[in-house]
Amino acid sequence: MTNPYNTDLDRNPANHQxxxxxxxxxxxxxxxxxxxxxxxxxxxxxxxxxxxxxxxLASALTKNGIRRGDTVSVxxxxxxxxxxxxxxVPMSGAVLHSINTRLDAAIIAFQLDHAMSKVxxxxxxxxxxxxxxxxxxxxxxxxxxxDDPEYDGAPTDFEAADYEVFLTRGNPDFAWLMPEDEWxxxxxxxxxxxxxxxxxxxxxxxxxxxxxxxxALTTSMQKHAVYLWTLPMFHCNGWCFPWTLSAIIGTxxxxxxxxxxxxxxxxxDEGVTHLCGAPIVMSLMIxxxxxxxxxLDQPVQFFTAAAPPPEKLLxxxxxxxxxxxxxxxxxxxxxxxxxxxxxxxxxALPSDEQARLKSRQGVRYLPLEQxxxxxxxxxxxxxxxGTTIGEVMFRGNVVMKGYFRNPKATxxxxxxxxxxxxxxxxxxxxxxxxxxDRSKDIIISGGENISSIEVxxxxxxxxxxxxxxxxxxxHEKWGETPCAFVELAPDxxxxxxxxxxxxxxxxxxxxxxxxxxxxxxxxxxxxxxxKFVLREQARLS
Amino acid sequence: MTNPYNTDLDRNPANHQxxxxxxxxxxxxxxxxxxxxxxxxxxxxxxxxxxxxxxxLASALTKNGIRRGDTVSVxxxxxxxxxxxxxxVPMSGAVLHSINTRLDAAIIAFQLDHAMSKVxxxxxxxxxxxxxxxxxxxxxxxxxxxDDPEYDGAPTDFEAADYEVFLTRGNPDFAWLMPEDEWxxxxxxxxxxxxxxxxxxxxxxxxxxxxxxxxALTTSMQKHAVYLWTLPMFHCNGWCFPWTLSAIIGTxxxxxxxxxxxxxxxxxDEGVTHLCGAPIVMSLMIxxxxxxxxxLDQPVQFFTAAAPPPEKLLxxxxxxxxxxxxxxxxxxxxxxxxxxxxxxxxxALPSDEQARLKSRQGVRYLPLEQxxxxxxxxxxxxxxxGTTIGEVMFRGNVVMKGYFRNPKATxxxxxxxxxxxxxxxxxxxxxxxxxxDRSKDIIISGGENISSIEVxxxxxxxxxxxxxxxxxxxHEKWGETPCAFVELAPDxxxxxxxxxxxxxxxxxxxxxxxxxxxxxxxxxxxxxxxKFVLREQARLS
Lengths: 541, 541
What we know:
- Chain A is α/β, with parallel strands linked by helices.
């Protein structure tokens, strides 16, 4: 029996178009041409200007020989040019490759070669780094320098086209290229892979469209919201927020550097309603001197990821008028694909209980079809008991296309029809996922698994501990034992003995760290603690 | 040159799933099982119950032999069963066919036969009508009767399975069927076609997913919004709001009949935040006696379509605390695909100017890729001058699959790669579309086109006019001339002479109606004025 609803009812140009977030900007510029799209210091750009400049960029790239499937790399902080690249590059049919500005030249060179980069657009501040990378790389991309008016460093004398001059060569009415298929790549982002070569995560237009809308829906983001760029856009395309804001005709407030003073000023002066960042960004804001903190007229939503927000920080943020939502995801899931979807009734619980609930990563985003914790051997769900550890896995339309030019890694990541995150977690009885560790962060002591996060959580509850990271340390008898790296809170003191006693009170004996190291903890540019660095220190100590 | 981003990066079950709004309910029931999904009189159903009952329905239909591509017809008012059918029917792989409860038996019989209906689910109130239709129809569907606790009519003695008993045969944990492809049909809705046979508009899962999200995004609908069912769900699947509410974990407040008292009570007692309807629903609310109107604690959004909201009604609604947004669309576009997206600056204008701006249909919904006014001969856009009339056309992902078993009508509707709405309109310089008439409603007098809407707008500005409809009347000399049907406002008087004088002041002489008829104006169940009835009256008079 043929299905009668599949007869003479085919796709055609009137009823089927590729999903792409690029259409959001076209709509915003058409409907609200004069609304402020971008704020950057004293600079204000309307949606009409934002769209025209993005089309100029696409047109100029095309005139420069860029074709569908070419890679355009950018090394840019959170500036208007970075936003323009999120539209203008894919509008030329090219794939946007955003490079983390904190990487070293060798890794950048690897990425440029692997992505077969044809053009690189570089902020003046990072021109020396890019020159160093290009000297190591095989590819010879066209070099374009962006001269940010908010950057006051000394001029460089490198040979490069000027971004603004380049734009003037482009046509502001350029008939930009829709993707031929919504499965076409829109961007590539390299994971910082601590072992082996970085992997190039390829995202497609369909997923970017869906996650960009998912951000607005999941966070009930209103029309004309004002978003502050504390999250680096080079990190996973800023979780797709560069596209979300066009969907709701919002305003981007750019920020070159994440410092407390410009954050508080933007919150107060620009009427910021939303921002994202690791808990370290909240710490930075909360620990700012009173002279820098400002009174806010509007409620502010803060979306945090990377680590569970500690209880005290949550309380301080609430006190300061912020509503904090915990998100979780990976570059492979376009950014956040999991949300700690809050129940109103939880707000009446004691604050330690609220913090416990908020520390859980949560449930699937609307555009993610499935999220579960599976036993990676059997691919069966673990019991929903909040204690059995399994691997967090994803399936749905906001999971990457795969790893670029790496079919083996792609196949491994998708084995069994699920995306394997590499994160270990538990499933609570109410369907909320909680991370327990990265596979490689688990500590195996005398054959028992120790979750480094569990030990960290115990130490976070100690009033003197500001930041803590626990990794495996070699142990003659047990194989491994935990080693704790600690930053103390300002005006607080605690020594190893005090913390050890605290852990003995709150943890099983074999989970008590064998060593406490008091030291500043190394972090990535997105605020993630670099456990591989600590693991190396613990191994050598 | 092959595009390297298309190599070894194929779709697979981990990264590609069919888009379907059915997953919204699964998520809502999983994350907020106890949240109230449905209110119906004293009845309260949680999301867990809503989902379990929908799965029971899908399971019971499957046990009854329903397969992918079968049609399940329903003749139901806005009841919990109608909501369950919007999920349970497509969860069985079947296509939902909602029938307008105001149709006559002959048209219902035509629809049942044309859709090849296998099962019909009928509210007890409409069993006599369905029996009459089945007597005329060729198909012999399984008959199921829904006994709504809110219906107090006398029992019938027809032979039919009971809906609740039918559900008990289904499994609440049924592994419901995802669509095999997001292009699979989810529903069929017959247009009321005033000439020829009704056409069956086929909608697909992809479009329903996108428009359901588009409703929430376009209207900035918050998590846990409370929605009152004044719009019939049989009308174009209630503009996809049955699916939107699950996406934002909202609450449906059902309503068997659109009357002022239950509307005001629901607004006040259930904390309704959103409702939809034709301007007649607003009139009904505003003209209710003071004893029935209630004070509201919350702001309420009213989405209106079908006709431009008159100025006085807008002012009255604003006064009463409602925010009115004008939407526009057709069954072929899943309901609203155009929104009068409001600019904050417009709220400072005089109220007649605001009403003029609000009477425009507006701009494309986010999930509609293109909206334009084209010359149907040349398929070129008309000038953006607000006066040149063309045909309003749509293209994008929220345009129907086509007309069921009617390839000729489908091809005509999609000629030239656009969906031809049959509505005539103008494009304003700011990109907002304004309807001027249906093609068939235009009045041709002495070779000149007269927009019936223009004449109606002039009459609406007369203080004594409550409702007006203008149609063509035969004229010996000019071929046609306008004929105006008028309902006067309560406590107001005006005769034909007064209205004629008013029109002479405000319209070109050839546009002044040749006749004024003071009479109640016939409307469809969705509040649309039945111009074909009036045209017939004008022809015979």
